[in-house]
Amino acid sequence: MTALTLSTSSAAALRADAVVVGLAKGPKGPRLAPGAEAVDAAFDGRLTATLETLGASGAEGEATKLPAPAGVKAAVVLAVGLGDAPEDGEGYDPEALRKAAGVAGRALAGSKKAAFALPIAGAADIEAIAVGALLGAYSFTAYQSQNGSAGKGSLGEVAVVGAKPRDKEHKAAAERAVAVAEEVNRARDLVNMPSNDLDPKAFAAQVQAAGKEFGLKVEVLDEKALAKGGYGGILGVGRGSATPPRLVRVAYKHPKATRTLAFVGKGITYDSGGISLKPAGHNETMKCDMSGAAAVFGAVVAAAKLGLAVNVTGWLALAENMPGGNATRPGDVLRMYSGKTVEVLNTDAEGRLVLADALARASEESPDAIVDVATLTGAMVLALGDGRFGIMANDDDFRTAVHATALAQGEDSWPMPLPKQLRKTFDSPTADIANMGVRPGGGLIAGLFLKEFVGEGITWAHLDIAGPAFNEGGPFGYTPKGGTGSAVRTLVGLARRTAEGDLL
Ligand code: BES
Ligand code: MN
Ligand code: ZN
């Protein structure tokens, strides 16, 4: 990944390929953001006017490159839009800094080193700029013979100007940024990896390797262990595939921890729909259906890298949902790990089946809270669009806390209800419940189904990331095309808050 350094030298004096400055939208036209002073001086104070003449307005997403004058060591100056300038006396919104840094990280693909001279009012801004730049610089080129279709590598080094490498808070902010960005990017890599290379077995092997590297305890239940344990949901979904399912437990423990969080991820390495086969047009991106498991995996590793004083256990419910001679049929009844029976009316509602077993198993360890993450329903995408995930919970205060944590990390989300009246829509004439209810409120019905498998008295939240997990459009801000690493930052934020005694 792109390297991160902190630099106290002047933006003009720093040896780099490019220097990044911020341009904000003021009431009377664009204005340079603090941090750009030395560069502006080298332009004889005419940088704002030059940028305006070139058509820059300071709008979010804007990137304007111009040759640097004598007096600036770097060859190129890149001005990125910060959106509306803050009111006098107020700082820049961290998300505006993340997005602008992300645009720069992307625009400088192929460069060795860039100096980021964006406005910094404190350590939180250093973290925001670093996270944005490292996430924006991400590219997935593993399957391209030329190291990227454009033949460029990603930006080699991000130097944050105005941050002091010897300042404890600045250093900690940088370390957090690196750990979080690395793990968001790990999740993105896993999501982008095609299903022919990332099946349940290969995914489990990656967790085992990371477990060795970061001192995590990893247990993998294979198909035999799943059968012995009675995991009817996970087995029922995986039966149609040539590659059998897995349940992975990956645990990070801290000796001083007083709280334990359980994160549960949907890990359908490919969702064809099964016998209720998805039509063409709905299956091209379904390698992304393990995004929840990828987010959980990344979050547990990030907690370990940061040494957070909290125990975090990740549960990855891995299966490939395929039609086949041995596949579960619509109408079949599964006996779940919890003992409940489920009539499978639609094999494409598979995520809730694998999660049900993982939630019931996670509940046995009585964690202080469970958060599950899943690309669960198309209905949630219709409700909220593809830019934000829905949050459901069995505790209103916890749902509010999860929402606030997501917002603070720059992850768009929205609280959703679990209406009691919808529970009876998945009654089954044959079994305890069915895996599908009516169409209206489909995302909430899926949430209500999961709630049936959460242990009595355990605080639980469910994040339906079907919208934001995979970006089918072009890149924007620090979000690339393809896998986005959705929910990793929210989970790490929750773990951090819990470690700091600010939650649960
Ligand atoms: N993996 C899909 C949900 C999905 C849709 C994820 C779009 C990402 C983008 C899930 O397994 C699914 O197929 N859900 C069905 C449920 C229905 C059959 C009750 C859906 O949403 O249509
Ligand atoms: Mn499905
Ligand atoms: Zn699915």
Automatic annotation (TrEMBL):
It catalyses: Release of an N-terminal amino acid, preferentially leucine, but not glutamic or aspartic acids; Release of an N-terminal amino acid, Xaa-|-Yaa-, in which Xaa is preferably Leu, but may be other amino acids including Pro although not Arg or Lys, and Yaa may be Pro. Amino acid amides and methyl esters are also readily hydrolyzed, but rates on arylamides are exceedingly low. InterPro entries: Leucine_aapep/pepB, Macro_dom-like, Peptidase_M17_C, Peptidase_M17_leu_NH2_pept, Peptidase_M17_N. It is an enzyme of class 3 (hydrolase). One of its GO terms (molecular function) is aminopeptidase activity. The active site is at residues 278, 352. Mn(2+) 1 binds at residues 271, 348, 350. Its EC number is 3.4.11.1, 3.4.11.10. Presumably involved in the processing and regular turnover of intracellular proteins. Catalyzes the removal of unsubstituted N-terminal amino acids from various peptides. Belongs to the peptidase M17 family. This is Probable cytosol aminopeptidase.
